[in-house]
Amino acid sequence: MKKILMQLKDYYGEYLLLIALAIVIGLIVGVVDAYFGMILLKITEIRSLSPFLWIPFLPLVGLFIVFMYQKYGKTSSQGMGLIFEVGQGENKVIPFRLIPFIIGGTWLTHLFGGSAGREGVAVQIGATVAHTLGNKLNLMKFQTLLIVIGMAAGFAGLFQTPIAATFFALEVMIAGKFIYPALIPALVASFVASTTSHFLGLEKFQVYLAEPFDFSLFHFLLLAIVGIIFGVVGSLFAKSLSILKSKMAMWFKNPYRRVFIIACGLSVLLLLLYQGRYAGLGTNLITASFSGQHIYSYDFILKLIFTVCTLAVGFQGGEVTPLFSIGATLGVVLANILHLPVTLFAALGYAAVFGSATNTLLAPILIGCEVFGFEHFPSFFIVCAFAYFFNFNQSIYGKQQILK
C-alpha cells in the first residue's frame, strides 16, 4: 500500500507541476498572442485602405524575409515542421529566435499583401514558449506534453476557442491518435491563454446563427454531400501546398530568385483582382460570407491559389484563417446552388475545410460550436466527419504522423 501511495504521489505531483506550468505558459502565450493578433489586424486595416501603396513592394519584402531567415534564422526556418519534429522526439531544440522571426515575417507578409494566415504563428509561439520553459526547468522528459500544451495555448490565445484548441493540439501531432496525458494541462493552458488575450483586448470572432435546420434522411444526405465537397477542397489545399513547395524548390534553386519572381506575379494579380480582395488573412471574405455581401463563385478557389503560392515561395504566416475564408465562401456558393441556409452552410464550410486540410476531426467540430453555437453540433459533426473521411489523409503539416 505504501508503495502504491508513493507512486500516486509521484504521478500526481508531476501532473500538478505540469498544470502549474500550463498556467504560466497560458499567461505568457496569451499576452504574446494578444499583441501579435491586434497588431496584425491593424496591419491588415492599413493595407486594405491603401493597397496600391503596399502590395507592389511584396517582392522586395520577400527578398528581405528570405535573407533574414537564410542569414540569421537557422533551424527556425523549418517552422511547424520543427515543432512537429520536437514533439515527436525527432529533434531536441526549438530556438527561441523562432518567435521574433515568425512574428516579424508574418507582419511583413501581411502588410505587403501576402495571402497567409496566423494560426501557425500562434501555435509556434506557444510551442516555443513551452519548450523553452521546460528546458530551463529541466523537464524535457515531458517534451511532447509541453509541446502539446504550448500548441493548445497558442491556438486558444489567438482564436479564443479553448476547447477546440485543446483537441487540436491533442490530435494534430499524430493523425488518428490522441495524446491524452496532456489533456488537463492543455485545457488549463488554453483557457488561461484565451482569457488573457481577451482581457488585453483581442476580440473573438463569433457569429450567432438563427437558421434552424430540421433533420431528416434527406437533410443528412445533403450534409454528407457538402461534407465530401469540403473534404476534397481541404485535401486539394494541403496537397497543392506540398506539391508546389517541392516544385518551386526544384524550378528555382535560388531562394531569392524564387520569392522575387513569384511575388512579382502575385502582387500584380492581387491588385488586378479587386484591388487586394485575396490579400492577407481573408477576414474580408469571412465577413462578407456572414453579412450578406456578394460572394463570387470563384472566391474560394482564387483564395486557395493565392495562399498556396504565397506560402510555397517563402513568405511567413499560417494557413488556417485562409482555410476559414475558403470554407466560408465555398459554403455560400453551395448553399445558393442547393437552396440551403446560407450563413449556416458558410459556418459548416468554415469548420470543415479547416478540419480536412489539417487532418483533424474533433477540433473543427468544436471550433464550429464555439464560434457559431453548440446548438448546431449535429450539423458540424456530420459535415466534419465526412470532410475528414474524404480528405484522403492529406495535411498542411508535412511532419504530421499518420497512424495506420
From TrEMBL:
Keyword Membrane: yes
Bilayer topology term: Multi-pass membrane protein
GO cellular component entries: membrane
Keyword match Transmembrane: yes
Coiled-coil regions listed in the entry: none
Keywords from the UniProt entry: Membrane, Transmembrane, Transmembrane helix
Membrane-crossing residue ranges in chain numbering: 15-40, 52-70, 145-170, 182-200, 220-238, 259-275, 295-315, 327-353, 365-390
Record protein name field: Voltage-gated chloride channel family protein
